Amino acid sequence: MRHLYLPSLLTMGFATATFAASSQAFAYGAGDFFTRIGVAKVAPKSHNGDLADGAFSADVQDKTGFAFTLGYRFHDKLGLELLAARPFEHDIALNGDNLASTKHLPPTLTLQYYPLGGIQSRVQPYIGAGINYTRFSDEHLAIGELDLENSWGAAGQVGIDLLIDGHWALNAAAWYLDINTDATINGAAAGSVDIDPIVVMGGLSYRF
């Protein structure tokens, strides 16, 4: 009888150990480094300001491109994440015509809160708040010379990881970025452009 129980106990023990190891692997927590990669859409708010004493109404157009993040969890429920990307190039409509364009690079650092951090869950939502720095380059204007000043602003974030295994997860995230830039046309101050976009990204997350 004892010999019959032994294989069963070994099998149960192995299954329990396997389940425990698997569950532990899904427990996000302190010490995790991670990266998220995907496709991001930058959608500025509608009507982005009036330039040259109201002569031009500016509308910055949406743009989609590759983006990625790097992050570190220094606590089960707290972490830092840096949003990075290749420069996004936006057309700028003036009075309805695409007469201008610019590239911008918007690195954004957020402090994140994970309510389920340290818990063995395949669903890991998070929220974050932080700061954005936007660098403008390659400005173009069909009727003169355009210059946009670099910008600092606040940032907010929501996101979720849906875990596939101990390292990989599906990720969806959105940021609000406060981007306001002073514009100069032909060397003269022309007003401000309030871009204030929502950035939506979908892709994969990998933790080390």
Can you characterise this structure?
By secondary structure, this protein is mainly beta. It has one domain: Porin (Beta Barrel), CATH 2.40.160.20. The chain has 1 helix and 15 strands. The strands form 2 sheets. It has an 8-stranded antiparallel barrel with strand order 1-4-5-8-9-11-12-15. A 3-stranded antiparallel beta sheet has the order 10-13-14, with no helix packed on it. A hairpin with a 4-residue loop joins β2 and β3. The longest helix is centred in the N-terminal third of the chain and has 24 residues. It is elongated, with a radius of gyration of 24 Å.
Feature tags:
single chain, 208 residues, mainly beta, Porin, eight-stranded antiparallel beta barrel, 1 helix, 12% helix, 62% strand, elongated, disordered N terminus, OmpW family protein, signal, OMPW
Largest sheet: 8 strands, antiparallel, barrel
Strand content: over 45%
- Rg measurement, Å: 24 Å
Shape: elongated
Strand line-up in the sheet with most strands: 1-4-5-8-9-11-12-15
The name CATH uses for the topology is Porin
From the coordinates shown, what is the CATH architecture? Answer: Beta Barrel
Helix-residue proportion: 10-25%
> What is the structural class?
mainly beta
Q: What is the number of helices?
A: 1
Q: Indicate the multimeric state.
A: single chain
Mean pLDDT: 87
Strand count = 15
Low-confidence regions: 1-24
